[in-house]
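Contributing: when you submit paired examples, paste them exactly as shown. First protein:
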Amino acid sequence: MGPSKLAKAPRRACHSSILPIARVETARHGHDLSIFTTVTMRSPPKEPLAIAIAGKVVAIQRVENSPSLTISFGNDLDSFARADRAKQLLESPTLPPLTKMGAGAVPPRWGVAVLGLILPVLLSMGWLSFVRRFDRARPEPAWLVGTTFALGGASAILAGSVEYGLTHLSPYLHPARMTFGGQLIAAPLALLVFTVVVGIPEEGAKWLGAWSFARHRSEFDEPVDGIVYGVASSLGFAAMENIRYFAWGRLATSVIVLRAFTSVPAHMFFGAIWGYALGRKLVSPKTSMLKFLLVSALLHGAYDTFLSVHHLESLTLVLHLVLTSIFIVLLRRALRRGVIATGDVVPESSRRLSIALGSPLVFALWAVSIHLIAVAIVALGLYFDATHQRVNLAFLIAGSSLLVLFGAAAHGLVATLPLEAVIDENGVTFGGATRAWSEIQGFFGEAFEIVIHSPAGPLHIGPGSDDATTTLAACLASYTARS
C-alpha cells in the first residue's frame, strides 16, 4: 500500500479498503487534516473506522457519505507535528508493489563508518583553510588553531546537553513543536524559541571553545585573530554535529552536499560575528561581547526557523548572502589593525586616514560565482538522490569539476578582497600588517601597488586605482619626511 492512499479498516473486520486521494488540506489551524477522495462511499460502514497511516493508527471515527474525511489529531502541541507528518506521507508518491525477497543481517560496512567520522572533519578543515588565507600578515600557529578546533568540537556536547535540558523543561521550549507543524503563522514564535533554545546555547558553547584557551595566549595579538579562532571553534562544532547527521543519513549524497555548503559555512559565519568582538576588545576593551553573541544567536535562530517553516526554505539562501556580506565587512574592519602589544589600549581615532584599495566589482563577481557554484553542487547531490542513482563515473566527474571551480572561486575571493591602507601617527597598516614610520626605509610604486621596504620585509599595498595609489604615495612621502 502506497503512502498516498488512505487505508480504512473496521475494528471488527479483517479486511480493508483503499480509496484514492485527490488532495489533502489542513484544517482547524493545523490540528486536523481534511482528506478528499475521488469517489464517494455509497454505503458507509456502521462501525467506526480505524485510519492508519504508515502502519500506525492515527484516528478512529465514523465516515459519512461524503467524498471528504476529516481526521483530528488532538488539541495538544504535538498534534500539529502529527498532522503535518501525516500530510507529507499522504501527499508522497505511491510506492510500487513490493515483494519480500529474503531477510538477513546486513554486514557491517567499516569503510562507511570510518568515512562518516573523517569526512565531517575534512569538510570543516577545508573551510578553515579558506578563512586562514585572510590572515596572511601574521598567521596563527597551526597547533593553537587545531586546539581551538578540537575545543569547539567538544563544546557541541555542552550545547547539546543544554538544549536537551531546555526542551524537556517545558513543551513550549521544544523548537520542533513551536513551529506548529511548519505553519507560516508560527514563524515569529519559532524564531524566538530557536534563538533561545538553539542559538544561544550553541553560540555560547562555541565562544567558550575560543575564549577558554586561545584568547589567553600571547599569540592572540591582532583583531583578526578573534575571527580566526571564532571560526576554528565553530567549524570544530560543525564537524562534531555532522558526524551525527552523516550517521543518520547514511552518508547520503544530498546530506553531505547540503551540510557542506549550507550548514557548515553558516556555523562559520555565526562564529565570525562574535569572533570579531573577541578580537576588537584588543583595540577597545569596552566592546560588548554579549551584544555580538546575541546577534549571532538571533541569526542562528533565523536560519533554523527558515529551514523548519514551510515556504521559508528559500530564505536560507538570502540569509547566506547576508551572512557573507557581514563576514566581509567584519573581516575588512579587523584587518585595519596589526599587532597590538599586551596591555596596550589603542582607541579608534578620527585622525586615521583610510584609503580604499582593490576592485569591489571584481570581488563581487567572485562572490557571486562561489555562491552559484555551491548551488550547482547542492543541486547535483539532490538530483542523484531524487533519481536514486548510485555514485558513478558521471557523478564523480561532474562533482570533481564543480569542486575545482569552487576552489578557484575561493582563491579569487581571497585574492581580490577589497582592503584599506590605514595611515596614522604610528605607521601604515594594510591587510593586518603594520609598518611603523621608524621602520620604513623607502617605498616605490609598481603595477598598481605601493611596495614599502623595512627590516620586517617588503609590504605590498594594493592593487588599487591610479588615484588611490597616488594619494597613498603622497601620504607616505609626507609622513616619512617628518620621521
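Second protein:
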Amino acid sequence: MTAQRDRLAGADALGDDRTIVAIATPAGRGALAIVRLSGPAVRHLARALLDPVPTAARHATRSVVRDSAGSPVDEVVATLYLSPHSFTGEDLLELSTHGGLVAPTAVLAAAIDAGARQAEPGEFTRRAVLNGKLDVLQAEAIGDLVDARSSAAQRAALRQLDGGLSRRVTALRQGILDLEALLAYDIDFPEEDDGPIPRARVQSAATELSAALEALLATAEQGTLVHDGALVVLAGAPNVGKSSLFNALLGEARAIVTDVPGTTRDAIEAVLDLPGWPLRLVDTAGLRKSADPVEQLGIEVSGRYLGQAAIVLACGDDATSLAAVIDTVRVQTDAPLIAVATKADIVSSGNQTGADVAVSAHTGLGLRDLLTLVERKLTEHHGKSTLDAPGLTRARHRAAVAAAAGELRAFGTAWGDDLLPASVAAIHVRAAADALGELIGVVQVDDVLDAVFRRFCVGK
C-alpha cells in the first residue's frame, strides 16, 4: 500500500516522461549489474521501489526492490545522488543488483512499471552535457573510453575526458571572440580614445590565431591513428606465410593457415596494442589473378585496404616473390612498404634479397625487429606519438577546426588586401567562432548532439 501511495504521489513528477532508466552493464553472466535512474521523479520512484529507501545522498543502502504487487524482485545496494551533484546533473539513483540476465532485467521492468522510461543510447551522458556537467568533447571521450581497443586509445580518451582538448579549443575560440570584439569596437567607435584600431594589429591577431588553428589541425592525422590504430596491411601472393605471420604477431590463431593457395578469402583484422602506436593488423587475400569469383572479391577487398594503409608489409618467401609483391603493391598505395621475408627458418639468407627484415612465424625469429621497424616507419611519417598532448581524434573534430581555420584565412586575405568593409569581413570571424562553438557544444545544435550520441550504448 505504501508503494502504491508513493506511486500516486509521484504521478505529477512522472508525467513529463523525463525520468529514465537503463541497465548500465553488459548482458551476460557476472557477479553484479547496475541499473541507473535519472530525472526529477527519482526520489518518488525510490520510495515506490525500495525498502528501505536511501535517505542520505552518496550513502550505500542495502535494500529490496519490490514490484507493483509488493513482491520482492532482488536485493540491491542503492546509492542516491542529488541534483546538481551527480553525473547527469539531475537526481540519480544507482542500483547494484545481482548479475546475470534475470535480476537486472526484473529490476528494470519494475522501474518502468513504476513510471520510468527506458533510456535511449547515450541519454545519460547527453543529459550531463545539457546540464553543463560535461562539454561535447568530454562526452565523446566517454564513448571513446568505452570503445578503446588499445592502451594508447584509452590514454587519449582519458586525457580528453579531463578537458585538455576542451581547454585548448576554448582558448582558441576566446581568442577569435576577442578579435571579433576588436573589429566591433573599430566599426562602432572609430573615433574613440586613440582613433581607429591599427589594421596591422588586427592582421597580427588573425595571423596568430590562424597559426594556432593550423597547429591543432596538424594533430588530427596522428590522433586518428591513435584512436583507430595505424592500419598495417599484410600483402603478398597466396601461400607465402601472411596468415602465419599475422597469427604469430598476435600470439593467437586468428587466421586459417593451410598449404592450399587462396585460403584467406576476406580480410581479417585485429588490434595489436603496442606501447607507442596501436596497430590494426589486416591479413588480406593473396594477390594473384584468379577465375574464382569469391576469391576475386577478396582480392578487391585487399586493394581497398592497401589504399587506406599506414604501413604495408610486403610479404614473400623468397627474392622472386618479394620483388613481385613490391611491384604489385606499389601501384596500389603510397604508404611506406616493409619488405618481409616470411620463412627465415627454411629459406637461405641468400634467397632473401630485397628484404628489410627476415622473420619466422614458427620460431619467432625477427618478429620483434619487424615491430620495431613498423614503429620507426610510423614515427618517420607521422611524428613521434604524443599521447600526453591534447589533439584531434575524430573526423568531426577535424572538420570543425578546418572550417574555423578556413574562415580565418578568408578573413586574413580580405583584411590584408582591403577587399571588404570591416563589417563584412567580420562575418568570417563570427563563422570561425561558431565552428569551434559547435565542437565543444557552446553553440547547441541538435544534429551535432544526435551524431555524437548515436553510437553510445544504452545506459551510458
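If you have annotations for the second protein, write them as plain sentences, like these:
Residues 164-188 form the longest helix (25 residues).
Residues 1-16, 256-265 have pLDDT under 50 and may be disordered.
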